[in-house]
Amino acid sequence: MDHQDNDHRIDESLRRRYIRVAGKQFPLPRSRKTRITSGATFVVLGMFGFLPVLGFWMIPVGLLILSHDLPSVRRRRRRLEVWWLRRRDRRGDGLSRPREIAD
Questions:
Q1: Does position 7 have pLDDT exceeding 80, yes or no?
Q2: Does the keyword Membrane apply (predicted)?
Q3: Which residues, at least 6 apart from 21, have a Cβ–Cβ distance to it below 8 Å?
Q4: What is the DSSP letter of 100?
Q5: 63 and 48, same structural domain?
Q6: For residue 24, what are the β-bridge partners?
Q7: CB atoms within 10 A of CB 77
Q8: Is the pTM above the cut of 0.85?
Q9: Residues 22-76: tens digit of each pLDDT
């Protein structure tokens, strides 16, 4: 039984993670350390968004990447997503009812 549990954990850790934005999927790095580093880098460089190459768009992308590994960021992202979908449905802009949010 232990051997199967270890295999399941290994398979889970090697599973490819994706960010889904506007119906498109973008792959994330497999390594947790790399995901956290890249997410933090996006947030920090996004603060220099007034520079020509960088942009303020990098901050939400970095937070989205970090939300896959940091529970506090994930909770805030989910709250924002639920709020946004409810707001959209109240205004009549929504195409459908809010779907179940799965990670």
A1: no
A2: yes
A3: 64
A4: P
A5: yes
A6: 21
A7: 19
A8: no
A9: 778 888 888 889 889 999 999 999 999 888 878 888 898 899 889 888 888 989 9
Alpha helices for 15-48 (secondary structure H): 32-46
The single-letter code of the amino acid at 97 is R
Give pLDDT, residue 32.
Answer: 86
Number of domains in the chain: 2
Q: Are the beta carbons of 101 and 82 closer than 8 angstroms?
A: yes
State whether 47 and 20 are in the same domain. Answer: yes
Query: 64 and 15 in one domain?
Result: yes
What is the C-alpha to C-alpha distance for residues 65 and 36, in angstroms, rounded to an integer? 7
Same domain (yes/no): 12, 41: yes
Q: 78 and 37, same structural domain? A: no
Per the structure, the complete domain to which residue 40 belongs is given by 2-69
The answer to whether residues 83 and 94 belong to one domain is: yes
Angle at 22 between CA 19 and CA 23, to 5 degrees: 75
* Beta strand pairing call for 18-21 and 24-27: antiparallel
Q: What is the pLDDT of residue 8?
A: 55
